[in-house]
Amino acid sequence: MKESILPHILKTGLALDPAKTALFYYEASYSYETVNTLVGRLAQGFIDKLKLQKGDVVAIQSSNTVEFALTLLACLRAGISLTPLNPALKAEEIRYQLENSEAKCFIFEGYVAEKARLAAGKTQRVVFNGEKQEGEWSFEEVYADAEHQPLPLAPDTIGLIIYTSGTTGKPKGVLLSHANIAEMLDMMIESLQLTDKDRSLLILPLFHVNAIHFTLLAVLLQGGSAVIRKRFVLEEFLPAVDRYKPTFTSGVPTVYAMLANLPKGVEHQYDLSSMRFGICGAAPVSVSLFERFESRYPIKLIEGWGLSEGCCASTLNPIDGQRKVGSIGKAMPRQQVKVVDEQGREVPVGEKGELIVKGPNVMQGYLKREDETKKTLVNGWLHTGDIGYQDEDGYFYIVDRKKDLIIRGGMNIYPKQVEEVLYQLDDVLEAAVVGVPDELYGEEVMAFVVVKEQSSLTEADIIRHCKEKMADYRCPKTVSFLKEMPKNSVGKITKQPLREMGKALMKK
Q: Is the pTM of this model over 0.90?
């Protein structure tokens, strides 16, 4: 039986230099030897103290912390599946993910403790960076005295369950096996030419596959180092590059837009020469942003594209050779990307169609969602729902989305979920949510509503209601009241006129 390499992810770093720093976290640093010991003790504690077994699920809700990184590595070592939760989720959203994933243990950071406890029910709880309550474990208490030694794990062991919003209904759990993850890491290492000399600056949230794979696991697999920041803070970015000398980072367009908008000359106050490149994904980069950023910073922008269902990335502009601004790049090693029509037939170069992906990185399926899996995975091909085309040089471009997905600052928002919350208000007769252009976040959420006559409902009332029910980033920034919705011949609300209306309103 072929074994998973993920329980041994620290092997190269340990062999090269056990004393080398694997993780930097503000004033603290952790050598490969220390990380290996902590991971081993934590994995054994999961087994001995929390009574977790191979195949069980652990949930974690946390900002980017060392505890998050250690939990991930301990789960991979012990054959336990990890499902990360966005810290912005509200209690109802947390409860759904815990129940759907059948998590046996819920680890959470102190600052989300109130809503985490409200959602956890009888799920075993572990808290860190905060006071524990009766019946809970502190993170430190979970460590065992003995270290768990990696045992052979089958490559089809589920390593991660990443929840991604669906266009309808509840979020879906993407099942990523050890083989999917290992293949993804190899593709990244090859494409980005990562070595043990590389050091990542981890600023994107660790509950997302981008940060997990690009800026944590890939660099550790090579014996490099990761500089972990709790979250992206504009004022901290350039000083962190100057201090820690990272060689690369991964961000969303909003990150690079904020850096490009800093006062002129700020960049000259810091030594940024260590940075080889910055990966940019989650949403298209405008040509103007690309040029503004690269004219100021000695950091090469590498644009790519992918989905959680594909483990993170499927295309990438070359690190050496021609980068095409506005393109999402070429297919990554060992992946196939095609543009197809509605019948699944490949279309000619330059013609638009749906992008589909095939490769060993493609998910095992959606947890408990066989029908959705069958629709998305067809004959081994992942149907992405993104509309694009390929040029004569093999570079791909995204032009639209088949689904109504809104991407705000790299976060996926599906209008249907927001609309369902709007319809909870008795005075709302009709609701429609669209994405409108936003200079900072790429897109912002705008809601259109038709309310009952004599209704006193205000924009503030609606936004307040949404913030009580959903993570803030999903909530509408603005609400526009209409007398009637634009509809097609069968009475269905048509969103394109609303998008145009939204664009016009944003310009006022």
A: no
